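Q: Give me the 3D complex with zinc ion.
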Amino acid sequence: MSQLTFASLLTPPAAPPVVVPTPAMAPIVMPAPVAVPVTVAVPATISHNGEFTIASPKGGHRTFRIKTVKHGSLKGKRILALLNGPDNTTSYVGFAFVNKTATGFDVWNRYKKNPFSTGTDWEFYATMLAEMILKGDESIFVAKGYRLLSSTRCRVCNRLLTHPNSIDSGIGPECELKEAGL
Ligand SMILES: [Zn+2]
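A: Here is the predicted complex, encoded as structure tokens.
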């Protein structure tokens, strides 16, 4: 029978830590720096609200509006909408938000593709418009003959112009007829 000693009541000293030698690490080889042309461009953003028309080289066009929500739970959000009716000041259907960094659009879920489709027209519009706004003349769509037009107003009646022909000429079709004396 071992005798209980004061020393045996003490916690034995902790075992010395086992030192496991770490395998030698391969030196990290940094690639040699490559000269990159320095561009001092400020990161492009979707900086403007308003109406934008994309004119296709085939003659069609689509008009979009970016507008900031002023009231309600979405206050402060910038909504991208498509013109889908006869009145170019009211006939818009929203389908995306300008993202937090204003570098693209977040298409609303109900307008996104399902797992069995390749993407919706809405997603294509959002991608195309963002690309054209952010890249300007460098846009791949400009290279394909598309044009991005910002809306202006008719010089006769001040109505919003969203048709490419009207934006180009600065006058709406009705006023153009009047101006021509027809
Ligand atoms: Zn007019």
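A quick observation: The pocket of zinc ion is lined by residues 154, 156-157, 159, 171-172, 175 (CB under 6 Å).
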